[in-house]
Every structure is written in structure tokens, then in C-alpha cells.
Amino acid sequence: MTKQEQISLSIEAASKRIGTTWPLYSFVTSNPLSGYEKLPFKEAVQQAGRFLKSNAYPSSDIYRQAYENNDIDNTILHDMLQDQKLLESADSYLHIMQKEELNIPIKITSRLDVIMAKWLAAFMDEGLAEWQMPNKEKGFYESWKALAIYDNDFGKLSSKELQKTSYEALEHVLNVYDDINYKEIFSAHIAALSGWTGYIKHRIDTNSIWQQQFPITIQDYLAVRLTIANHLGMPLKMATDVRENDSIIEIKHTWLKAWEATFQNKLVLNLKNDNISVNSTKEKNEFSDVQLVFCIDTRSEMMRRHIENSGNYETYGYAGFFGIAADYQHYQEDISIKSCPPIVGSPYKITENPNKVLVQQDTDFKADKKRAKAKTHILKRLKNMLPSSFGFVEGAGAFYGLSLVAQSFAPSAYFKIKNRNKRNYESFCDPIISYNGGDKNKQDVALNEKVAIVKSGFDLMGWDTFAPLVLFAGHGSHTVNNPFGSSLDCGACAASPGRHNARLLATLANDKAVREVLRLAHQINIPEDTVFIGGEHNTTTDEIVIFDALVPETHQERLATFKKNLKNAQETATSERLMVSSGGVELAKNKSLNWGETRPEWGLAKNAAFIVGSRDLTRSMNLDGRCFLHSYNWKSDPEGAALAGIMGGPMVVTQWINNHYYFSTIDNEKFGGGSKITHNVTGQFGVVQGNGGDLKMGLPLQSLRASDTEMYHQPLRLTTIIHAPLNRVESILKNNEHLQTLLDNEWMYLKVIDSSDSNQFKTYTNNFKWTLDTADLERQVEKTNTLEFAY
Length: 791
Fold this sequence. Notes:
alpha/beta; 6-stranded mixed sheet
């Protein structure tokens, strides 16, 4: 093996030890320790802790809050501690954990980290800076090399000391080491700025426009970093940090499992008590007036319950990209954004086109686009160009000052005036699906592919009857002055709003040619009077906007009643969510318009479970926004194809989300976003704390905690519950190695309501072994006297 091969393999191995940092404009939640998933959870977090200098488990104060709130059942905890030969009291272990945490060293940002963060910010800028770093098109190492001799932060460095290529630079500094494997050296330096290196990883994986024009690699990063370190006389081998000893890890791991078991037992018991008959779909005396399909998002659960209580309505759960693997291009933009899960390719593109019936709007449509582009371009140059920036600030200061006052004291009136001329493009545009890129770009998608998109949704949800009105409700979050705003949008749409996919699915389902093929080839008979419409659930205000420009006159009365009931559901839902007796809608709107609001909404905080099955399982339960809900009818899926799609897709994605929240909570400095109060946006793609340092890769503190000391999100690993025959679930697992790994290594849990065995609850343990949930579960839960999920 050559030296270059040794270096390349070591870089590849070391890179797997960090997660991916997603940009602010498409902030996708993912497991920051995804590279460790082939290891058991306990071993993985210990290894990660060594290299990333990170915490692995909730702190003692979080455990104490959970214990005092009865979220950790004392009997379960006692039994689990005993099993591990931990014989002292719960209070004793809380004190032991707290004492050990005081000895964890505080991380101090090194001089090398400061220098590297400065250079990375300059090179990776994505348009925020009007003057770009020279020679970026040559790549990071070449661009840095041309300027390094002028950087006084690390002393005088002559051009003769700089090697021609990044590989030669690494070979030069590593010559003093006899190691054949440089993995440990590289791991430590990559982990030192894991936010920045995670973003390099993202750019490489996605091959973004910026990466194509201005390439950067982990090898480039290491070449620059180690060259500087070598010049400063710093040792290249960095000390690893053992955060906690093995005995503390064992204690904390046991406490976590007890907490998770308590949650699972409460949820299972309530499912057993609430469920009248999970053996078959609930018989209905009449068809629903309206059916609504929401994203599986935890925030949809509450809204579904309130809508069902407001009228004769039926709700379903389906991943919020609605099965359309596409990018989306807004009519005022020249570039498209991803609008489906990051793990899915985008063979299609969704665009907007003025409706032929409203062709009069076409001129305005094109003029709007030109005006919007010109306004954005001019304002950006005025603010960012050195000659004009000072004059612009002086001249526009009074105007922006008045705007700030208006936003602070009259936000509703301010945004009403600001948006008075804003046109609702959904009212005159139709969503169009075309092939994405290549020779097929702009061509109409084949009929059989449109049919497949619609049929897939019906199959996954087990849908067999249709109401006169069917609403596909995507979701998005509307807030102001929030760098992390995209994290509150639809994760299934790659942190974009789901309205575009919802509108397109409705359009395809209304297509007469699509319906005819569904009827003839697949025996799916959609009544002639069924009209599909798209909409959007604003998760900040719980308003549901319906895009109904083309709803026929025959359905207007039903639609008007439906809209009225949605308003009522919004009132009750926001009041429940914000814990007020009245005025919930107004309070929610004010939060969404307040530029200083640190918590416009809670996003997916408190998520802990993923339930796959009929709505009858949970219809009358208050799940407190803790569960993802995916509709599924095991009877209509005899081959298990639909369930395989759910387990291979949404089940994996919800695990991503869950672990993102877990790690952002237990170590917000390393895996989270820090405090919003001191955030600075850099390069248009990320934030740093204060004036520099590592790029933040996770959720801000305010999205996870109720206060600096009070917990809100409960950091528990995901529990999936599936209602289906056990052998069907097992067969799917045996064909999905990744899911097997996640379950066997305890990155998530799985329970099955076995429809082939009297709907008994069975828990996956390891290597396809299952345990039966017994009556002892009910005894343990009843002792807590806190049926948290009872409605």
C-alpha cells in the first residue's frame, strides 16, 4: 500500500466519525453519530465521546427532573439497577452522577481552531460576502496557499514552506510518524471542528452548486490545519478526552433505559385501554364529509384530534412529501430546492404555471418575478458593497428604526401593510410536474408514473373509500427573524414547506386520465363527485390554508362549512397547545410575528414514538405531541409491500429526527445550536456562537428547554409500534440490514401489535427474539398514577 493510499483510507475512516451539518436554508434533522450505528449504542456514544469530547447521556439534573415528575418509575428503575448490581438508592446515584459531572473539563477553544474557523468561513461563504476570497475556484488548499503568507495569526510563513498539493502537505507533516494508519490523528483534528467538517461532508455528499464551483475536501481541510499546526510547533497527535468513566456510563445508561421503559409502558397501557377493537377497522354508519391527510409529524397529531372533534371528518397520516420525489422551483426563483427526503433522489421537478383559465394574469406573473429579483439584487448590493454600505445604513436608518418599532409593538399591522401587495400565487397558478434535468426536462411525466404516485399513497395508508372532499395538508412554519426557521418546516420535504407536494398530489388525483387507469388497472374507484384539494397546516398558528381556487360550485357549501369548523378546531388546538383558556389564536399569531420570539413554536420537541396503524388505535387519545402517526391497514397489504415502504422510509427518518433531538439536548454545545441570543449567521448557511468558532450543527437551546434550567424535550430513543402480523414485520426486517442494525444495537425500539395473535403486544429484543408484554406492565404503570396519555 502506498503512502497516498494510507492517507486516503485513513481520511475516509476518520470522516465516518462525524455527522452531517445541514445548511440553515434546508436544515434537515439527522443522527450526528450516524457513522457509529454499527456499534451498540452504549459503546458508540463512549467512542464518540472520546473523539468529539462530547457527553453521551442526559445530565443528572435532567434525570432528577424526570424522576421527580414520575417520568421514571421507581419500581422499574430499582429493578434495572439491581440487574446491573447497582445496589444503592436512586438519590445516591443522582448525587454520584452530579459529582462526576463537576469533574468534566471545560472545553477551551484552541488558537488553531480559531484560525481554521476564520479561513473556512471565508472560503465557504455562499454569497453573504459581496467580495469573495480570491482563487476559490482552485479549491480550498490552493486558495489558502496563495494567501497564507499574509496571515499574521500564525506568524511568518514563507511560500517555500508550502507544499504544492494537499496530499504532499499531509505527507510532509506526517513524515515524522511511523504510523501506517493515521486514522487517530485525522479523527482528532476533524472532530475539533466537527460542525465545519460536517458541512464539508454535506457539500461533498450533495455535490451542491457551491461545491461544484468552489471545491473543498476533508483532505484539503486536514492539509491546511496540520500545516498550520506544524508551523506553530503544536503536536499533531491530540489528546483524547475521556468524559466519563465506565461506572458512570453504566449508571446513566440504566437510568435512560428505565426512563424509556416507563414511557413505553404508559403508552402501551393506554393503547390497550383505549383501543376498542384494533382487530378490524372501525365500522362507520356513514361516509365522512371530508377526509384529511396530514404529515406524520408530531405536531399534526393534536390538530387531527381537534378537527375530528369538530365534525364528521376522518384523518390520515402520510409522510409530508406525499410520495412525490421532487425538487420545487418557486415562480420567482431561478433555482430549485429539494422537496422530498434527503435520502431519496429527485427524478421530478414541481413548478408553477399560470392557469389557462386565468391567462390574463400571465403578464403580471412574469413582471412579479422580474421585480422581485431586481429588488433583492439592489438591496443586497447596497448593504454589502463597501462604497455604499455606510451611506445606505445612514440613509435608511430612520426607516429601519420605524420598522423595528412597528414590528415590536404592532406586528400584525406591520406585516399586513408589508404584504398588502403580495400575491397568492396558488390562486392563479397550477403545480406542474416534469422530469428533473437532462433531455427530459420540461417534458410531461408519463401517465403510468403519475398513476404510481397516487396509487402509492393510497396503498401505504390503506385507503379504500373516498369522501366528497379530500384535503392533502402539507405543513410549514411561519416565523420571522429565525435563522433556524427551516428546522420547523417539513422534514420529509428536506426542511421545506409541504404545500407544493400537497397541491401537486391533489392535481394528479383529480386528473381524469389518472383516475381511469386507477379504476381499470388497479380496481381503485374514486367517485366522480370526489374532489381533491391541497392545503397547508401552519404549525405555528394551527391555521389551515386551503388552495381552493378550482373547487367546483357543487362543493362550495360543504367547503364553507368545513372552513368554519377548521377555524373552531384552530381555536381549541392553539388554546390547548399554549395552555390558555382563550385567545390562543391571537397569541399564536403574535408569537409567529414577533421578531424577538425565541420559541415561536416547539417544533418536534418531546417526540418519542412512531405509531404505524389504523387511526382507531389512537383516535381518542391525547398523545401530547409525542408520537409520529402513519396510517396503515394490514388487511389491505397482504404482501407487506406498503409496510416495507413505511419501515424502510419514514421509520428510518423518524429515528434520524429522534436522535437529532436526543443529542442536541444532552450536549447542546457539541451537537446543538447554542443560545439564539448570541448567534451570528455566517456565509448564509450556518451560525456560529459570538464572533467565531465551530459551526453549530444542531438545534438551539431555546428549541429544547423551557428555560435555562427546566427541561422540555425528553431525550429518549424512539419507540416504534406497528399493528400488523408479526411474521410480516419479521420478514421485512430480515430483508433490511440497516433496520436490523438499528434495532440490534438499540438505536431505537420496536413493538408489534400482533394481529395474527389476538393483538398481543410483543417487543423486539435482539436477533429476532421477541418478548410478550405481560400484566406486570400494567401493575408497574398503575403505581405511578400518572396516565399521561389518557384523554
